[in-house]
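Appendix B. Chain record.
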Amino acid sequence: MTAVAGRRGTGHRFLTADGTALYVESSGPESARLTLVLVHAWTQDQTEWEPILPLLPPEVRVVRYDHRGHGASAPAKPGTATIAQLADDLAELLREEVPDGPVVLAGHSLGGMTIMELAERHPGLVRERVAGVAFIATSCSNMDRLTLGLRGAAGRAAMRVDKALARSLSRYGKEFVPIPAVLARPATKWIAFGKRVDRADVRAMTAQFLRAHPRSVGGFRDSISQHDRRAALATLAGKPSVILVGDRDRITPVRHAKVIADELPGAEFVLFPGAGHELTYERRQGVATRLRALLEAG
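Structure tokens predicted for this chain:
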């Protein structure tokens, strides 16, 4: 591991088994009984959790990191822009960064899918170490038809644009510099947020997208389309869990959250009226409250 200057303090690089450097930050005492691990969304990075961090108990250790191909982590190597690889990365990171004690996992969107894949690929680790799970604006299946909440011809057009964007991203090599932030923000606001949007939040989320590695991001979209981990959720049955969704989420709508709830009947289901996909920004207090409850239960 190599120490580096982070965007908020000092973080470090964690090398995975295939030599990919992941950027990791942590806060709170390393001697804490319980660790909260935060797993971010597609096209975002670990800075999406910054609104949540001040609202968490100071005595809990918090570990957050950038997926490969996102934020300050290295690009995904050819063939590794998959949710399965992200699950393996998370398993490695848990064994190295949090070798002992119970963990609570919180995943937003792709982060939630990564946790489901972790349950599929590393069930022993999940059964032994995971004390609670938060699924935030995420899905366990049916991500191949992204209509952005539009119907009919408009919905079909949205699906075509989604696929075209993934192909376009895959052609770029480093950063997606051709899109000026001022032009990207309106699309980000409409797609990712609900009512009463804070401009600073839109700017923050757009900045994350613009610093992601386009080729990696495009590759992950294919894996997201194929994601179906309903059966894997059985590994989490009986563990304290919460499912959070906004009723204006265009990316992983309420019906997707209800499928997860069907597989985890003991989970708390929380619907945020007026909120979109970016719950870590739009409903930061509500998200933090549910995370604190999981930490107390764990």
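Further analysis of this model is presented in Appendix C.
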